[in-house]
Amino acid sequence: MSSQFDLTDPENEALLGSCRQAKRIAVLTGAGISAESGLATFRGDGGIWSKFKPEELANMEAFLRNPERVWEWYQYRRDVLDSANPNPGHFALAAWERICPEFSLITQNVDGLHQAAGSTRVIELHGNLKVNRCQSCGAESDTEEIRFEGKVPKCGCGGMLRPGVVWFGEMLPEAAIREAFQSSQTCDLFLVVGTSAVVYPAASLPEIAKESGAAVLEINPEPTPITRWADFSIRGNAGDILPQLVEAISIKL
Ligand code: OAD
After folding, report:
1. Whose CA is nearest to atom 18 of ligand 1?
2. In 3D, which of 138, 171, 181, 129 has the Cα closest to residue 156?
3. Which residues line ligand 1 (CB under 6 A)?
4. What is the pLDDT of residues 137-195, one digit of tens each?
5. Which atom of ligand 1 is nearest to the CA of 54?
6. Scanning 58, 85, 130, 172, which has the fewest C-beta atoms within 10 Å of its C-beta?
7. Measured in angstroms, how far is the CA atom of residue 31 from the centroid of ligand 1?
8. How many angstroms is it from 32 CA to the middle of ligand 1?
9. Domain formed by 1-39+87-126+172-253, architecture
């Protein structure tokens, strides 16, 4: 583990070796990778859940009780997202994907910034903030033409639309979780970037990868439950560390 990441430090030789040799890479990202794009993380000081209560906003009971309040909050988050751009951490992962034979980017984020940076194989475990889903017929649409202006938006079928994200107590999208487990079981390097690794089932993926024989590399300015058993743990911001790593393994950004 290093407190200040220094690629020339012989301590990082094994880490770089693992990154260079890896042919199958899986990455799990969390809110931390988008922090440098100006989007708040969930936990800790200033985190979203320190200002808002999940039980009042991010579950079905809350939506059925007060859909306007829930919509107002998600519209606010969409507005914030509209002015956010991918940062060097997102771009570095997109560059890595382009030269790696098998690269799966599993994200808990709903902001779409990985795709905006050019990543093409993104597995969204918690849905996408810019998608609307109908409560009645399940049809999905993007948000371009739909905005919450005080009235809950409706689907063509008459049903109430809701944001296309996973709320507490809901199942994760089946295909996404299946692909995420598969990539975790078959990769030879698993990166854990910018997640507190406390929300399941996402938090179990690094463990599955480790049990299946992969090396686990964590990038986070703070320690997490994964830190103590990860093969490599780099203390730092994703936007600093990932571009350095990608450059070091000889990829043109
Ligand atoms: P958290 O807010 O729990 O954790 C963010 C992590 O990012 C923390 O460990 C920070 O130390 C780290 N971090 C902060 N800045 C960073 C940076 N510049 N570079 C790298 N890491 C940084 O967010 P998640 O782990 O994503 O779920 O939270 C998981 C889920 O909990 C979310 O998807 C959301 C939430 O409730 C749902 O809404 C279903």
Report:
1. 237
2. 138
3. 30-33, 35-36, 41-43, 47, 58, 108, 126, 166, 194-196, 199, 219-222, 224, 237-239
4. 999 988 767 889 899 999 999 999 999 999 999 999 999 999 999 999 999 999 999 99
5. 36
6. 85
7. 4
8. 5
9. 3-Layer(aba) Sandwich (3.40)
Sequence-distant (6+) residues with CB within 8 A of 180 are 26, 28, 104, 106, 123, 125, 202, 205
Q: What's the gap in Å between 154 CA and the centre of ligand 1?
A: 32
Top CATH class, 41-83+131-165 = alpha beta
Residue nearest to ligand 1 atom 17, measured at CA: 237
Query: pLDDT tens digit string along 221-250?
Result: 999 999 999 999 999 999 999 999 999 987
Task: State the average pLDDT for the chain.
Answer: 93
* Sign of the dihedral defined by the CA atoms of residues 171, 177, 178, 184, in that order: negative
Q: Which pLDDT belongs to residue 83?
A: 95
Report which ligand 1 atom has the smallest distance to the Cα of 36: 18
